[in-house]
Write a structure and sequence with these properties.
mainly alpha; single chain; EF-hand-dom_pair; elongated; EF-hand domain-containing protein; Recoverin, domain 1; two-stranded antiparallel ribbon
Length: about 130
């Protein structure tokens, strides 16, 4: 399991390094209100969500995936109390496979984040008019 975890973290390292090194002098855009800092979260469909880093999601995924096959079932997510996955399993499992992968979770998470950014951009455009 350590080898899989290490390989997964190392696979993410080049993307993180590239993103950080691409333009070190640029100021990143501000995240939607509530997202971004330790303990931060966002509101979605009347629920408050905790914002987890990719590393935290990876660690939670591997802890919950007791079969160590890279496929997290709803039962495994419930047993591990992996709330974001449990609450949104049907959305994350878009292809209705009966399980989700780490990449499925990340894709859903980025889609949700993009929706929040679009909503915030629309709010700001409305203030400008």
């Amino acid at each position: 399991m350590r080898r899989i975890l290490l390989a997964s973290v190392l696979a993410l390292a080049p993307a993180v390094a590239f993103a950080q090194g691409a333009d070190d002098n640029a100021n990143p855009p501000l995240p939607p209100s509530g997202i971004g800092g330790p303990g931060a979260g966002w509101s979605h469909q009347g629920k408050r969500h905790h914002w987890m880093s990719p590393e935290q999601i990876l660690m939670a995924f591997y802890a919950a995936n007791t079969s160590h096959d890279g496929h997290l079932t709803l039962a495994q997510a419930k047993a591990a109390n992996f709330k974001p996955v449990v609450e949104h399993f049907s959305e994350i499992d878009a292809n209705k496979k009966g399980y989700v992968t780490f990449y499925d979770i990340q894709a859903w998470r980025l889609d949700e984040f993009a929706k929040h950014l679009e909503k915030r951009a629309d709010e700001l455009r409305a203030k400008d008019q």
